[in-house]
Write a structure and sequence with these properties.
Shape of chain A: elongated
Order of helices and strands of chain B: HEEEEEEEEEEEEE
Oligomer: heterodimer
Helix content of chain A: under 10%
Radius of gyration of chain B: 19 Å
CATH topology of chain B: Porin
Number of strands of chain B: 13
Shape of chain B: elongated
Largest sheet of chain B: 13 strands, antiparallel
Strand content of chain B: over 45%
Low-confidence stretches of chain A: 1-6
Low-confidence stretches of chain B: 10-21
Structural class of chain B: mainly beta
Number of domains of chain B: 1
Number of helices of chain A: 1
Number of helices of chain B: 1
Amino acid sequence: MINLIWSGFFIMLVLSGCGWNGTPTRSNDFTPLTSIEISADYSNIAVGTSTRLKVTGNFSGLFTRDVTDQVTWSSDNLNVAAFTMAGLPNRVKGVGTGSATVTATVGNISATCPITVSAVTFSTVTITPAAPSVAVGLSKQFTATGLFPDGTTQDITYDVAWASSSPDFATVSIDPASRGLVQAIAVGTSDITATFGAVSATSLITVTEPVLESITLSPNNPTLLTLSTRRLVATGTYSDGSTPDLSSQVTWNSSDTTITTIASDGTATALKPGSATISATLGSVSATTNLKATGGYLTGISVSPAAVTLVKDTAGRISATGTFSNGSTRDITGAVTWTPIDTSLATVTLAGGSLAWLNPLAVTSTTIKATYGALSSAAATLTVIAPQLQSIALSTTSLELIAGTSSPLSVIATYSDDTTQDVTHLSDWTSDDTTKATVAAGGLGTERVTGVAAGLPLPKISATYGGETVLTAATVTVRSPTLQKLTISGASTVAVGAHTPYTATATYSDGTIVDVTSEATAAWAVDSANIAIPADSINQPGQILGVDSGVVTLTVSFGGRTQTAKITVTGP
Amino acid sequence: MKQTRSILIVLCLPFLFCTQGYAQHSGPYIGGFIGGNALMNAESSDALGSFELRFKPALQGSAVAGWDVAPGNSLGEGRIELEYTRRSNPLDRVKFVEGSFDGGGDVKADSLLLNFFGVLHGNSRWSPYAGVGIGAARIETSGLTVTGSPLGSGSATVFAYQLGAGIDVALTDYLNLDLGYRFFSSARPKLTEANGQTFAMDYVSHNAVLGLRVGF
């Protein structure tokens, strides 16, 4: 056996390193040039016109190559034929009638070509194309041809005087390298005129609207977790260089709607793991990108809480959790359809991200289900009661904050039957001095008080709820130490489809350490949405959701400082 | 290329028929090798682009001096040797954009490598070995031409290495016959074209060698 292994090792070595098999890009300039030959588009030309000359080199009889650009030109009769056209060294112009011999020289190799210049004038000049239509931003090469009385013709594109009647719509080039090239500028028409002596010709060019040349889709090759959505953008590139967003104009298509659907605005929704080609088409132009769906397919839905008692005309949070075939579970509150049996008794309101409110409308009992496709959760029971509000109370009556940071504050209502319920998001919140402290909605229906500046008198935060004013207040003390360090803590590895929380911690000059994860001014970002995304940037900042295997950089910015962390997402 | 493969496969076949061996030699030895080498098609490039050099196979010769490590040594079983080799391959064809043309002249490589070979001693006189060598090579062109016109000249000393394997046949306790294969390559030497430009070329060769080593 060991001998067989050695033999295999030998053969592998032999098969490796077999030499270059590429395509040469260099010309052979080692083999000597032994002769050259001149060819002219026209050997007889009219006075005032020109003809292009081409020189082909013969290298020792082994191969030929165009060497026109290496040639030095001369004429034995400069009164007949001369090389006087600026920027066009290989065109000889007939300056007077008669015959001349032009000579091309490369090194010590020369060749000659006779040129006859006649006094015959053109009977007509024609322009081609005759009446073209050109879209804004595009160009069209025009050619002028002179017709001799004997019926023969000569290309005089380089010899006529070109002009455009409306340069605002179309211009014509007189540059040596692009003579007769018409550029479409704006929608309209223009006469393109070619004049040679006393004869001229005109072609009417119609400049049309810019045409769509290509479409690009972004993001390119996106990856989505099942049940999640992502909006694709179709950007068109028009002949005039403009690049408008065509997302609402293109026709979107998914090659496999069981894997992903695509809405008319370009929003893709992943349904089950797999890949599908997304295309966007407008007219005859289309673009495609490959969409990959990860995270397993949905196998079950559960609703939390499974049974809840709420006071009529209040609201309580409700959420749905999906169980997926890859073993993961995640919040799918925003993706499911909520189906109260009787919407006159209760409704569900989506409040963005993973937040949904269950609204009891009548004193009764009813059930709620979360549905996605053919799957439904077990029914959650809602019991609605209608006791009298007795009082409300803040979760705390004093807060000590560092300027720029915040703390949650909630309101609990107590009813006549001793029932209590969180009514934070239903209360009206105010600060009596917003220069020192402000109050605003935080995630998942909370309110957060933010310290703005230290000072006396201390600011008061008040909450009002219940029709008749029931007011309570929290006193806020604000301090202003200097932020010295920002850190991120959390797992270095997360699984595809898993919500994973990360914490941002600020360390201040007085030694205070503050969790700033949920601060409105803390900006969280992930550098590749194909690998990980914020789980719920509206309600749960700092939580990320693994999308596909890979490594991402999680970034948090707060108080002028930025911190990053590398996170590895593991499949499936 | 096919010829090279055939030679090396034939060289490998004896591994399948190992028989009773002699006592292992340890200590110093010297040796000499002859063989054939196939210098692979080489990409050559300069500021104007790339072109291909194709070479004819050629003979090569080597001299070695080394030390057979004693059995049971903590370094393992094998040998360490210093190897000098001369290779010289005629330039056959030169391929440019315009096509392939006759070439002329030679590319020589004189290499000095420090080889480390591990030997798999068994109960037979056949002992397979494999190893690596690192060192330097002086690569020199001699009268390179294309279609009879000068192509390039010059020499350069560059890093070189080889992978080697083969079989030792113990003829006596002190005399070994060595049938081997070497894959030899170097960093790209920079040489001078006839027009004064610098060009760099690949140097990769496959080598089949036959040698004798005498121990002391």
